[in-house]
Structure formats: C-alpha cells, structure tokens
Amino acid sequence: MQPTSQIEHDRLFTVASDHMSPGRKATGRALLLFASLLLLAVFAAQVLDAFGTMHFGFTNWRPLLYAYVAWSVALAVSQVMVRGERGQRTLFVLPAVLFTVSMVVFPLIFGLYIAFTDWNLSSLTGRKFNGLDNIGHMWSDPFYWNALFNMVYYVAAVLVEYTIAFGLALLLNADIRGRKFFRVAFLLPLMLSPVAVSWMVGKSMMEIRFGPLAHLARALGWSSPAFFSAPGMAKLSIMVMDAWTFIPLMLIMLLAGLQAMPKDVIEAAKIDGASAWQSFWQVIFPLMLPVSITTVVIRIIFKLKIADIIINVTSGGPGGATDSVTSFIYREYRDRSNVGYGTLLAMVYLVIIVISVTVFLNVLNRRVRDVN
Amino acid sequence: MPLPKAERIGKARSAALDRARAIHIAGRVLIYAVLIVWAIICLFPIYWTVSTSFKIAPDVMRGHLLPWVDFTPKWLGWRSLGLSPETIFQVSTVREEFLKRFTNSAITSLSASVFAVSLGSLAAYGLSRFNYRFGFMRNHDISFFFLSQLILPPVVLAMPFLVLYKELALLDTRIGIILIYTLMVMPIVIWIMRDQFSAIPIELEEAALVDGLSVWGAFLRIVLPLALPGMVAAFILSLVLCWNEYFFAALLTSTDAKTLPVMVASQTGSQGISWWSMAALSTAAIAPLVIVGVLLERYIIKGMTAGAVK
After folding, report:
1. Counted domains in chain A
2. Which CATH architecture has domain B93-309?
3. Which of A184, A334, A338, B128 sits in a 20 to 30 Å window from B255, CA-based?
4. DSSP B2
5. B130 and A10 in contact (C-beta within 8 Å)?
6. For residue A129, what is the enclosing H or E element?
7. Do the chains contact at B155 and A329, CB–CB below 8 Å?
8. With bands split at pLDDT 50, 70 and 90, how would you rate the model's confidence at B163?
9. A253 at the B interface (CB within 8 A)?
C-alpha cells in the first residue's frame, strides 16, 4: 500500500509549498476535537432528555442538527489547517459527500428499522418490533405483486419510447427548415409537471364526454372512448401520458449524441454507396450504442419512480391495473397510515431494483464488448 | 424513327433524375409531415389548457377550439383565481393561496437547484482532477456512490424522512423540502458536470498554477467560466425536476410549505371544480417553466452533449 505510486498521480498535478507550522496543525486538530466533543455532548444531552433522565428543555432534535452542521464546518476547516494543499483538494468533494451521507445513510438505516416494526400512525399503540411479520404479509399481498408486475409493463414501454425518440432525433438532426421551432416544441412536454399533465391530458383531454381526445376517438369509430375503465386500456393511457412527458428527455440526449458524431464517417459511408437504411444500421446505430444505453438506463431509472400521474389520474384503478409500486405504497401511507409495512415494501422494491439494474448493466456491458 | 443514341441516353438519364427527385420530394414531405404531427402532439395539450382557461361551460361541452372563431374568450377561469383584469386589484383569498404556493415552489426549487449545482459541481470537479481515498473508497467508488443515488426510489426515503423531519422540526418547512430536493437532483448535476469538466483541457489550470494561483483560485477564475454553459444546463434540469416534484411535497408538507403541484393535485381531486378554473390554475403552474424552456432550450442540448456522449 504505497500512498504515492505512479498510477495514483492526480490528473492535475500540483507542486505546493506545504510549509505548515506545527502550531497551525495543532490548532486544526484541536478545533476538530472540540467540535466532535460538542457534537457528542449535544447528542448525549438530547438522548438523556428524550428518555426523561434529565431535563434540558429540548422540544425537538434541532440542536443536534445544528451541532452536526457545526461539526461539518469544523471538519472542513481542520482539513485545510492540518493537511494544507491536500486538504484544499479534499474540500471539493467533502461537502457533497457529507451532505449525501447524512441525507441518505441515516434515513436508510432508520428505514430498515421501521421496516421491521408494526407501526400504524393512526393506532394509539405506537411502533413495536414485529420481526418478519411484515414480510409474511407482503408475501400474501396480491396487490403488491400486481404492482410489481405492472412495473414490468411500464419498463418494457421504454423500448417503444426509445424507438420514437431515436426516430425524432434523426429527423431533427436531418437538414430541415425551422429546426429551432421543432426543437423547442418537442422539448416543451418535459417542462410540464406530471401533476399538471394528469389534469391537462388525463382528466380533461381524455374526458369521456367532451375531451378532444374522446372526440377524436369517436370520429375514428370508437363509440364509447373510456380511456380508464378497461384495465389494459387504462394501463396504455397511463403509459402514453408518461411517455409524452419523458420522450423529450430521451430525444435531447440522443440528439446531443447525434450532433457529436463525426460527420466524415457518414460521408464515407455515403461515398461507399450505402443506402440510408444501410448507413443507419451499420454506421449510425453502432456508433450511437453507448449514448443509447445511457439514455435507456436513465429513462428506466426515471420510469421506476413513476407515481405522480397514476396517483392523480387513476389512483391505481381499475382494480389495481395501473398501480405502480410507488403509487401503491403512497396509498398505503396516505389512506391506511401503515408506516411499517409500507416501508418494508419500499425496501424490498429497492433491493429488487438494485439487483435487476446491476444484472441489466452487466449483461449490456458484456453484449457491447462482444459487438465491438 | 429511332432516336439517336445520345438523345436516348439523355432521356433515360433525365427520367432517372426525375424519379430520384420525386423520391427526394416525397421523402421531404414525409419528414415534414412527421415533424408537424409530432409538434401538434407536443403543443396541443398546452394549447388546449391555455384556451380552456378562457372558456365558459357551453364552449367546453361543445368542444370548441378556436378563440374568436367558435367561442368568445371570457375571463371566467382567471376570475376564479383572482387574476382576471377586474379582480386583480381586489382582495382574493384564492389568489393569495395561489401566490403563497407559487412563492413556495419558486423558493424551494431555485434554492435546491443552486445548492445542488454548487455542491455537485465542486464534487464533479474534484473527482475529475484529483485522486481521493476515503477509507476503502477511491474516485471510482465515490462517483458510483453519488450516481447510485439516482436509482434510489423516493418511496424508500419518504417514510424515514417523515419521521426524522418530525423529530427535527423540519416537517412542513421550506428548508426541509430544499434539503430533500437538493439530494434528489445532485446525482444528475454530478453526472452532467463530471463530463463537462473532463472536456476542459487540464493545461489551462496547470498554467494558472504556475502563475501562482491556488487550486481553488484556478477553479474559480479559469475553470468555472468555461464550464458555465454546462452548469446552466444542469441548473435548468434541476429546476424542472424540483418545480414539478410532487411525491415528497405531498407527504412532507401540509399548510406552510405546500408547493404548487400539491395545490394543483388537491384541486383536481375535488369534484365540484370547474374546468376553466382548473385550466387557469394549470396554465399558471406550467407557465414559468414553459418560458424557461423556450428561452434557454439551446443550453439544455449543449449541456447534454457532454453528458450523453461520454
């Protein structure tokens, strides 16, 4: 474990004159020590207060939060005082790391604890540990499995969205007039909030009596255009609305990729006599593969969080046909205040996501390596 | 009479050219047709919402579309929000409610985006230039740690945050919402900015260091101005995600810090609400970002260019 091997050189190599007086170092260390002691003291005081052993008159845990912020600042300052130039470099990443760790790790650990408790906000008994009961409950909860199964449909729809987005990106990249107008127009749905879209499209345009889409459907021969009463149709309607807001994101990522592609490669293909079809499949598509993968992965990640539109348009109905995991758990919280069980469902969902995304990325990586 | 050979070839060639030109024109027509159809798909819902906010009941029911041609615009929807010309100077509780939610949304999304872009850019710069070691974690692991936050579904954090915020007295406060939004968009900022910084040649900073600037001086004076377009893109994307966020806002706010999407959603749920006022509310809720999108569209694509290609 050599701290300075050849491979470990920073990209930006600095030769700093790190002459730090021992006094400065000592002050830095003392500062950090003092802040840590303060943090510990506040923590101890809060715990004692919470258990009623002593009374400091705390009404909430805010003081601990302030102590933590003070400790973080002290840590940053002491880094610079003790380690000089190296400390200054650490300072670039330190705030983001501290922030993310404290915002994610504590809640996650706490969430793991909640997940194994029987805790209903509306019941008077408060939370109590109930071991694996929640898992048993989950196992026999058909609505959760149904929601998970729906996610498979929702994620599969990404492929269709990708095809549309790629086609549109190719058109926008072609030599056309009014490109600026089309680009802005195609981007706009991304700017709209899913909640507004739920009303604008789901509740008004798809309204069965006088929504314009219902009019259109009648004109095309569908006599009773009910977009949300049959399970399959409801699912499709939700997918269409979600696709409508997110195709622009895929579109701009793919368009950016197309614009960054070397022009001479396509020219060369054209000179070699390749048709448009051939040059797409044999030149453009393979070159765009990395961008495509990033786009699809990002889109799937967003898709796995789909909830707003479902909550606001169908609340998961009819009969759970449109439920996503997030919207299902949301109702578990909101309507039944079932905190413990809902959190367990969320944790299980997280585990499933992490495993499937990892497997998916590994398979993709291997395939890409095979192609190239 | 057979035509002379040269003339025959000429005719054949011009026929072939004609056919090629016809195919070319047909292709152009098809391209523009697809583009226009998709533009209509993108724009019609927005047009529908804006125009419905000026309709009255019979216009909605008959499905009228064109103002002044098949319906006369009325201020009905905007009056119910207190934003029509007659009501704008009168006291209106609905308008106050709306403005409060609007301010909440503006403050939370702007501050969260500023925080996320600052923290995220610093981290992205550090990761693209220096080697770090926090325990067992190297640069690669730190980057992965940040980006992996992307796949964390909001439901996982929602309940713990509800309980923790209650203990910390952050429930239903703007600060609480800002913190969680910052967390939510920071991975995306880091993802965009890391590639932006990698695209900036390192020699510039080396020259600056030789000239006696510190690491931070070189970053602030040399790198930051160059990375500005990318930061604008990251900022806009953060703004869009925060302004439109519904899930956390619905769970973690109630009266004081409630944001605009939560207000829109609560109005959608009530049965008595009329279309024109709902349309006016939706229009007001989407207007700021539509304007941002129209004005700053080129930055988004520019910022994505680096983000997507690497």
Report:
1. 2
2. Orthogonal Bundle (1.10)
3. A338
4. P
5. yes
6. strand A128-129
7. yes
8. confident
9. yes
Q: Are residues A215 and A329 in the same domain?
A: yes
Q: How far apart are CA A218 and CA A263, in angstroms?
A: 47
Structure tokens at A94: 């330190």
Residue B305: per-residue pLDDT? 65
Which range marks the domain in which residue A206 is found? 136-371
Is A316 touching B (CB cutoff 8 A)? no
Vertex A75, ends A73 and A80: CA angle to 5°? 100
User: Is residue B306 scored above 70 in pLDDT?
Assistant: no
Give the pair of three-digit tokens for residue A10.
């920073």
| Best of B47, B149, B159 to mutate (most A CBs within 10 Å, chain A) | B159
Examine the domain organization and report whether A140 and A106 are in the same domain. no
Q: Judge if A187 and A335 occupy the same domain.
A: yes
Asked if A343's CB is within 8 angstroms of B46's CB, the reply is no
CB contact under 8 Å between A10 and B268, yes or no, is no
Taking CB atoms and an 8 Å cutoff, what residues of chain A touch B286?
A: 191-193, 196
Q: How is residue A320 annotated by DSSP?
A: T
Is the entire prediction scored with pTM above 0.90? no
Domain ranges of chain B: 5-81, 93-309
What is the rounded distance in angstroms from the CA atom of residue A199 to the CA atom of residue A202? 5
What is the C-alpha separation between B109 and B265, in angstroms, rounded?
18
Are B123 and A195 within 8 A, CB to CB? no
Q: Per the structure block, which two tokens stand in for B296?
A: 């700053």
What phi, psi does B72 have (nearest 5°)?
-95, 125
Buried-state track A108-117, b at ≥16 Cβ within 10 A, e below 16: eebbeebbbb
Instruction: Note the pLDDT tens digit of each residue in A172-181.
Output: 988 888 888 9
Contacts 24+ apart (CB under 8 A), A298-301: A298/A249, A298/A253, A298/B150, A299/A158, A299/A161, A299/A162, A299/A246, A299/A249, A299/A250, A300/A155, A300/A158, A300/A357, A300/A360, A301/A357, A301/B150, A301/B151
Report the pLDDT value the prediction gives residue A167, as an integer from 0 to 100. Answer: 93
Contacts of B308 in chain A (CB under 8 A): 253-254, 256-257, 260, 291, 294-295
For the stretch A89-140, pLDDT in tens is 888 999 999 999 888 888 888 888 888 887 777 666 666 777 677 787 788 7
What percent of chain B is predicted at pLDDT more than 70?
94
- Alpha-carbon distance of A153 to A158, in angstroms, equals 9
Q: pLDDT-derived band of residue A159, with 50, 70 and 90 as boundaries?
A: very high
Q: What is the CA radius of gyration of chain A?
A: 28
Q: Which residues of chain A have a CB within 8 Å of the CB of B190?
A: 96
Q: Is A162 on the interface with B (CB under 8 A)?
A: no
The shortest C-alpha distance from B2 to chain A (Å) reads: 34
Domain check: are A141 and A54 in the same one? no
- What's the complex ipTM? 0.87
Give yes or no: residues A149 and A81 share one domain: no
User: Please, what sign has the CA dihedral across residues A176, A178, A179, A182?
Assistant: negative
Which chain B residues are Cβ-neighbours of A354 within 8 angstroms?
Answer: 151
Q: Is A131 left (phi over 0), alpha (psi -120 to 50) or beta?
A: left
Minimal CA–CA distance to B244: which of A198, A234, A256? A198
Domain shared by A77 and A172, yes or no: no
